Amino acid sequence: MPTDTPILSLAGITKRFGGTTANKAVDFDLAPGEIVGLLGENGAGKTTLMNVVFGLYRPDEGIIRIDGQPVGIATTADAIALGIGMVHQHSHAVARHTVLENLMTGLPGRKGLLDRRSALRRLTEIGDAYGLRLDPDRPVGELAVGERQRLDIIRALFRKARVLILDEPTSVLTPQESEGLFSALRALRNDKVGIVFISHKLNEVRAITDRIVVMRRGEVVADVPNDGKLTNVGLASLMCGHEPERVVRQPRQRGEARLSLRGLRLTDTRHGGAAKAPIDLDIHAGEIVGIAGVSGNGQVRLAETVAGVEAAAAGEIGLDGNIVRDPSPRRMQAHGLAYIPEDRIGAGLVGSMPVRENMVLSRYVEAPFSRRGWLDWQAILDFARRQIAAYDVRPTDPHLPVGLLSGGNQQKAIIARELAFSPRVLVIAQPTRGLDVSAIAFVHRALMNLRDEGCAIMLISDDLDEIFQLSDRIAVMYEGEIVRDTPVEEATVPTVGLAMTEGRMAGRNAA
Amino acid sequence: MRLVARPNRNSPLRDAMMPVAAVAASLLICAVLILLAGANPLTAFGIMAKAAFWGKFALTETLARAAPLILSGLAALVALRTRFWNIGGEGQIIVGAMAAAWVGALTSLPTPLLIPFMLIGAALAGAALAAVPASLKTRLGVDEVVSTLMLNFIVMYLMQALLSGPWKDPVTGWTNSPSILRAAEFPVFWKGTRLHLGVLVAFLAVGVVGVIMKRTTLGLSMKIVGENPRAARHAGLDVTRVTLAAALLSGALAGLAGAGEIGGIQFQVIASISSGYGYAGIVVAMLARLSAAGIIPAALFIAAITTGADEMSRQTGVPFFIADAMQGICLIAVLVAMTLSRYQIRFRTSPERRATP
Amino acid sequence: MSIVDLVLDTGFFAAAVRLAIPLLFGTLSELTAERSGVLNLGIEGMMLSGALAGFGTASATGSLWLGVLAAIAIGMTIGAVMAVLVVNLRLDQTVTGLGVSLAATGLVFYSYRLGFGESSTPPSITPFSTIPLPFLSDIPVIGQVFFNQYALTYVAYLLVPALAFFLYRTPAGLSLRTVGENPQAAAAAGIDPIRARILALVVAGGLAGLAGAYLNLAAFGSFTFGIVSGRGWICLALVVLGRWNPIACAAAAVLFGAVDAFQLRLQASGAVDLPYQLFLALPYAATLVAMILNAKRAVGPAALMQPYDAEHR
Question: Which residues of chain A have pLDDT under 50?
Fold first, then answer.
């Protein structure tokens, strides 16, 4: 166990955003050659704290020390100069620039010119030392998600980072890629680099870290050595302050097929053209089908295609046994399909508009909200009030711009809108991403009630726990196709995980 | 310097006061300009106010001058609400004026139809011209900012070419189009003033646009497309059609402004038929905070500046162009005020200082 | 005289280059701003201000070069104002740029009246004369077209490769491009996007002012209200046409200089019996057509028109 002076030490860090306090008098130490896991629910303040260290946010109070010396970190340039490197959850790289250009960005160069040669040399060195390799001349836009993350780590090492902050690094990685990342991290630890590993994946944190710090509501609530005695349940209750509430799924006889996909080929956003293989999938009344998969394997596109937002490259979508011709969002909705997109404020709501308008965003052209093009504001307001009350959206003022609501209440508002007319089919993507514990429980209960009432639900989520908890069947998406589709009773985390990473081959073997 | 969101972001009173503050700030800047010209700003503003509002003639002149500004402001409002950057109001006013002048000179048309057809023709011409950048945007992705600006110049030179070619006055040789028929001249509501039918049309248009934006599904669709086109698409709106509808409405309103100038003021096309009304419309719309109700006071204010500046220039020698400068300064001031109503400015304090407890 | 004869002499090409230079300065100005992620609709007003500042200073001091410096200075000042508005205050770039152009235009006309009164004959100055470059100007045809020009033209020649070199070969250029593509990525790499954008706008303002100064100190020799008349806005289209690359942008500017030279020749020749205003409309129509032809292929900096908010959550 390293016992040197902390390489990084935070004392009493407080950071406020408007009225909310994201970090409350946080103390945190990191020794050289130590990997510390920073655990916490979404919104617990982990990322905010590390953004303060990296100079992206300025703390309202508190002291940062590097090697025991108090330092002022006003900008990211200050942080980098002090040897701090950060790898963000979503890669901060310029898609149109090459790997090497991205690595050279922000470096001083030589005699006022970009120093390509020494950058190449350094890239080779890092590849040799830590097994982190990339083609220098490829545009970053062509890299896979895992490769982009490797780029970000290489970039931090390029700047001789002694403190490396990784923000949820494995959320976009396959288990294999994660293992590669871990061996690189162990090599870095041997070189006395201090590493902060932010995550909410308990197994990984237990596997890789030396010490675990747990945050809740902006405060550090536990700081314990990872001595092998910690359990997932213990950590989870530290993270949310109580035993997490779990929705119980009652076995239920499924009904007739409500949503049928036949030979559906998705369009491929990254490369153009269509997905390799067609999708055939039925979702029945009273059934939740969880779509698992590593982020970026076509789940978003599947949701948008089924919802009629994007056209399919080929194939048919059937609702209640009838093929929908020329699907559009309006047409799918008319057939009883409701859709809740993953990007709430970007695609599901108009943030600058009041809750009232957002409650009827997809329905105001119909009676009773309008007749012959004339809006009936009273009907809209009554409806909005009713739904706000029914789904406990807070604050309850229907005239408030929806963008001012918390993430959980925004999601409640969308659910209130989409479930208002008892949909026969629901497509919902990442229903609880970024929500706090109570909001997650609310959303899970709402989905389970809907299922018990006989709705057919397609649940797309990156969170395997959520998928296993709610689904009657689990389908796995890999490169735009469904490679595995089994009842939940026949699925295990390892088999599903394997199908997520290796596609159909693994799916066959497991089945 | 950085912006910090105000804790209470939803304050109707602050929102309402904002354009007032913007106007006050621009008047202050203009006072400095007037000082530079060697005149007393208070005297100068006094002359302006008197020339714009004092007495029947001044008041009605300001109203008459406000009419094209109201219509052009409404045109900008509809477009900006939908985030269709129609900066082509100038060109659309000109084609509206040309259409009205052409219809108004038609001897083959039954007399009672002349004026309605002038209005319809002008609206159609404006809408048709606005449809060009709108379809270029929705079909080909051509940026409408540049295309509408280019069309302004193209239309202006085409009009001037017509005026010095086919439309040149055969008798005097002046570059004015033939005058419209007597029967095509807009009726005047108050004898001895220029309070013509076009002014009424402008005020009616405020009501119509207000109702469209507030009470119809089209208006709500335009606002949704303007605020968040992606959410609009997810909610099943046809973004292309809504954009096109907004462009057509915007162009038609601008076209009507041209008709008013022909039927009520000039009775023929002259080279300076729209001296910047199109651009001023954007100022009016922003001053009105993109609300139809605010268009009338905003347009009256800009009209008062121009009528007032004329007289002030005559009496004090301060160049008339103070009015042009004022419009631009007002536009910037109102944008700044809109931001300040939601954010506070904090100047950078050193993090070390604040980081120390 | 046929239309072909109109364009087949060195005089025409020399005129094309001469008329291209203000567009070139303007296009490089707009390119600099847009590469940092800011659409500069204020360019029209900056060019006009540069024109008046250049002309006013030159006629007051008798020094053309002081006029050039004044034009650059006023352009940089307006660029700084624009930067405070759209970078610091994050105002909408389209409406703000328009406002800056409107305000600058009004202020220029106002100042002109204050400085020069209402005389019906506009005052004029002796503009720059051409300087044939030794040896280079002796090359047949090319020498007369390219190397018997104004000093400012030679500055423009140097500026094109210099800007290209800056953007693609220096760390600062890479930083600027990164800010325009993804300011968050730039911040993560230790670059201050706010500072980069402010600097870009100040430089862009200086270049736009220079473009304005060229118009009357080199091309026309006098100031008129219509001296810029949309040239700044044409530059917006030329940047798209040149795909945000200095070399291609220079080619686009020369092409449009040729269009301008062509319409002037057509007017002067009387070869076609049409009102001259139709010819005046030609450059704008050509711009529109070029934008249509180029539409699907033009992809600008990814963060263009997106304000950068450091503490965005």
Answer: 1-2, 507-511
